[in-house]
Amino acid sequence: MADLIQTMEGALAQFSAGEAEQPLRTVMELGGSTSFFGVMPARLRDPAALGTKLVGVFPGNTADGVHVVSVGACRPDHCEMAPALVARGTLFVDSRAAALVESGDIVQGIAAGLFGPDQIRAELGDVVAGRAAGRSTPGEVTIFKSLGLAVEDVAEC
């Protein structure tokens, strides 16, 4: 684990110093000028590492049964989702405590009176461990709002 954390720390430092190769990003427009899918690769030479970020943006997709994964916007003054979508959906988060103070999607919706803290059904870890229910009906709109906790990066490795 210590090696992994040290490697991640070094990779982030190299990336911040501009030492990562970032080839041309591929962006495909999907069904109009507001929807797209992007592939953003990056590579380090030492240590040899390759990573790819996939980004999909579908602002009009609020149909019944949709699942939205929102990663980022981790400041109370930033949003990535329409407040009405968050109010309509069943919300899952990586950390309830962090989401209630850091996620603009949640903080601003609560401040506007669109929903309360109880809009968060559960933390993802509780769903995975079977301590909380996930989707309850096929038509339910579900949202996973992630603030990008370091423990998730470690769990993915």
Keywords summarizing the entry:
ornithine cyclodeaminase, domain 1, four-stranded parallel β-sheet, 25% strand, disordered C terminus, alpha/beta, Rossmann fold
Task: Walk me through the structure.
The protein has 157 residues and is α/β, with parallel strands linked by helices. The protein has 2 domains: 1-59, ornithine cyclodeaminase, domain 1 (2-Layer Sandwich); 61-157, NAD(P)-binding Rossmann-like Domain (Rossmann fold, 3-Layer(aba) Sandwich). Helix content is 31%, strand content 25%. The protein is built from 6 helices and 7 strands. The chain has helices spanning 2-16, 83-88, 96-102, 104-111, 124-128, 150-156; strands spanning 26-29, 36-44, 49-57, 67-71, 90-93, 120-123, 142-146. The strands form 2 sheets. Strands 4-7-5-6 form a 4-stranded parallel β-sheet. The longest helix has 15 residues, at 2-16. It is globular, with a radius of gyration of 18 Å. The N and C termini lie close together (10 Å). Residues 151-157 have low confidence and may be disordered.
